[in-house]
Amino acid sequence: MKNKLAIFGRRGFVGGVLVAAGAVGGTLVRAFQSPSAVRKTRPTKKTSSFVYDVSEWEITDRSQLLYEPESEFDTGFKRAKRIAVHGNKVFVAGDRSIKVFSSSGSLESEIKLSRPPHCMHISRDQELFVGLGNYFEVYSFDGERKLKAPRPKGANTFLTAIAVHEDTVYLADAGMREVVLCDRSTGEEKGRFGKKDEALDNPGIVAPSPYFDLMVSGVGEICLANTGRLRMETYSLDGRFKETWGGPGMAVDKFCGCCNPVYFTLAPNGDYITSEKGLARINVYGPDGKFKGAVAGPDMLVEDKALAKQACNDCSVGAGFDVAIDENGRVLAVDPFRMVVRIFKPLEKQGLPAQA
Q: Per-residue pLDDT tens for 170-204?
């Protein structure tokens, strides 16, 4: 069911934040191209006079936890950014390379890049798609570059997510606030959507910071995080809006701050694993968007509680934990502060099916 009320109803909640965030949007995009930009907090101007009190939500109700920490391993990056899993291999993007680890965390290989990677995707036929700011490249697992795609037409393009379905590459462009469709073999742009469009029933993508994630689901739909609207949305492959779930709020089953969820992944059964910055939490939602439980909350993920409070009010502060799910149903999260991969295993009371 289309949640059209949520499209307009939350304007009062984040209106002031979005106006200020838009003014610093270009600065944020440039800043996030620096390998060290997200590692440490720096003083910034407030984006709103309203201050969130998140203390009530910093402790996770243990009855809601569906996972527990299992292990972690060091990435060796100064700035660890994104994660993907393929079979028993873990791919981590950071600095100016992609590192490939075993499922236990042993470094197996490294693919050097000319620029900092901001997103990546692994196709079923073992091709690695990497977003490098305003264009993408395709590599084999042994590091051979197979394609350097031309830059999309947007003047302010900044790629934050990549997905592939058949002969089309879908790019999340946070700079232009659009999804760009490219030919898989050539990288040439062949369409885009994301602006408000009554003909397609599209509400318009709002991305006040360089966080805008997307995936293609197992049923052939585009799932994306409309971060400025604090919700998830689903589109047809040709860009027609279908449905939405989520919304603003401080409670564990809502998305708080100026722009969340910053990352997500899809489990084989259709569940969403979402990740929020600011009030850092990783949660599980069903295919219908109904909250099922938590992987980890702020008390487990971030030691600096002052940072959590500040980041909920200022989208330029703090960073999200990118997430992936492996073939054993474990959730892997990149810790952008400690530069490690943290692994959470399902509790006995529940379990996600293994990766197909």
A: 999 999 999 999 999 999 999 999 999 988 889 99
Phi, psi of 27 (to 5 degrees): -65, -40
Edge to edge, the sheet with strand 67-74 lists 67-74, 340-346, 331-335, 323-325
* Number of other CB atoms surrounding residue 5 within 10 Å: 9
Mean pLDDT over each residue of the chain, to the nearest integer: 84
Length of the chain: 356
Asked which of 41-45, 50-54, 191-195, 312-316 is least confident by mean pLDDT, the reply is: 41-45
How many percent of the chain have pLDDT more than 70? 78
Task: Give the Cα separation of 109 and 100 in Å (integer).
Answer: 5
Does the domain made of 60-346 have the CATH classification 3.40.50.300? Answer: no
Is 41 in contact with 317 (CB distance < 8 Å)?
yes
Tokens encoding 216? 């293609």
The neighbouring-strand residues paired with 226 are 231
Tens-place pLDDT, residues 28-44: 333 343 333 443 333 33
Whole-prediction pTM? 0.83
Confidence (pLDDT) at 27:
39
Pairing status of strand 263-266 against strand 159-165: unpaired
Element of type H or E holding 4: helix 4-9
Confidence of residue 279 (pLDDT cuts 50, 70, 90): confident
Q: ∠ CA(199), CA(201), CA(202), 5° rounding?
A: 110
CA distance 156 to 152: 10
Read off the tokens for 329: 């149903």
Interior angle at CA 338, CA 312 and CA 215, nearest 5: 65
Q: Tokens representing 340?
A: 């490690």
Q: Domain map of the chain by residue range?
A: 60-346
> Residue 21: enclosing H or E segment and its boundaries?
helix 11-31
The candidate with the shortest Cα–Cα distance to 86, out of 98, 67, 103, is 103
**Whether 255 contacts 247, CB under 8 Å:** yes
- Both tokens assigned to 195: 């602006």
